[in-house]
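INFO batch 0412 | record 1 of 1 | parsing
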Amino acid sequence: MKTYEEIMEILEAYDLTKSYRAAAELAGCDHHTVRRYVKLRGQGSDPTRRVERPKMIEPFLPKIEELVERSQAKVGADVVHERITALGFAGTDRTTRRAVAIAKASWRAGNRRVFRPWTPEPGLWLQWDWGEGPRIKGRRTWLWCAWLAWSRFRVVIPVLDKTLPTIVACLDTTLRRIGGAPTYALTDNEKTVTIDHVARIAVRNPAIVEVGHHYGMAIRTCLPADPQSKGGSEATVRIAKRDLVPTEVNLRAVYGTFGHLEAACRAFTEEINAKVHRETKRIPGDMLAEERRHLHVLPKAPFAVAFGETRRVCWDATISVEGVRYSVPHQLIDTRVWARFHGDELVVTAVGEDGPAEVARHERSTPGNPKIADEHYPPRKDHHGVRTPKASTADEAAFLALGPGAASWLMEAGAFGAHRVRSKMAEAVSLAKLHGAADVDRALGTAAITGRFADGDLLSLLSHQARGGGELTEPIRASETHSLQPGTSAWANFGGIRPETEEETA
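INFO prediction complete | emitting tokens
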């Protein structure tokens, strides 16, 4: 096949000489080639167009198109090659693959699904979907991802299960964050929403229908295997998983607790709702303020039937379920919560200003074995049951005002069983006026460490400090190599007698 430039040179040579042979000598080709291109130009055909030659597979093309049509372009080229080989095709499978690819492309072009661009109206559609969240201490989590279609406002909430009560809690929280309820809520065909399909018609779960009636919404589901019907919420899931689930891409650290994941989700939604959206060129938070005028008013009370049985929190921050005590956060004392069993776990839900939320989760227990979580209670001021001194009279307050050494002395003296504690406390207050509160407190701390609670011990310690004695870091104790028995060195010069030296004795 000649190139376009070569063909133009041949035609130019013929126009100059008006002879096939002369033009062939000038162009450097055969005169029959010159004659063929000149005839094609004279017939009005494109001389540069390649002439298609008959192919071996052409007699079998109708059969290939039939197989592609019957399978809706899903048949494999190897299956087609086996069929046409049985009919007498002697070519290679490479030729068959090319023909099948062309036939499939032609079928798809004539049967392509055409989508009309969706133009959402304000206050009409809310979509939600689920994404798998990060594992926290080996436990699986889920991300509730909701998307308001018109304003593109997103809400992401982490949860530990996808049960119907959890869906109700997340739905109520989402609606209260956006400030109203839209007309429709679109989601996937899970068993909590769609219990069956009859003649391709979705049969709704009666419980979710009741939830929709409570909030004035109609629950709708997308077509099976049709992501185009809820692409907005799926995009929200993809973006949330990309930013919240620790991967090598975002370099996010592993979450230590579920509370850390909740804080990350709140920060993510605040950040993404404050950015300019790529499609609308506006901030979703600003558009939400406009869309709220088209939303329905929310009921004051959430749909709490699905949360389980109600329980009142006792003064010790516990609830009783089937005769077993389970702890809840101490901030919920004297309030009402809902409790339900999910498998082998008890889930406790409370309704706050932002809607219902899970506040506690315990493993199922038996009577006589309460489940108490330390994080549900404030930190204790006393350690291991030891009470710290707290003044109830003016004299006690004056003594404890000396400093931490006075408090230590009182605690150790009480444990030691010292006598006349109150009179010794009054004596310490009096000595503080002469020696200073700091010195007396230091002496009291030393006395507490060494266990010196007898009469006169405090004054002796003060005198020791006045002579420049340092802090007593370690009390001296009797051992096999050291005795506390007083020696006889003080009697060495008694009566003018001095000890004899070794020389005098000799």
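INFO post-check: The first helix runs from residue 4 to 17.
INFO record closed
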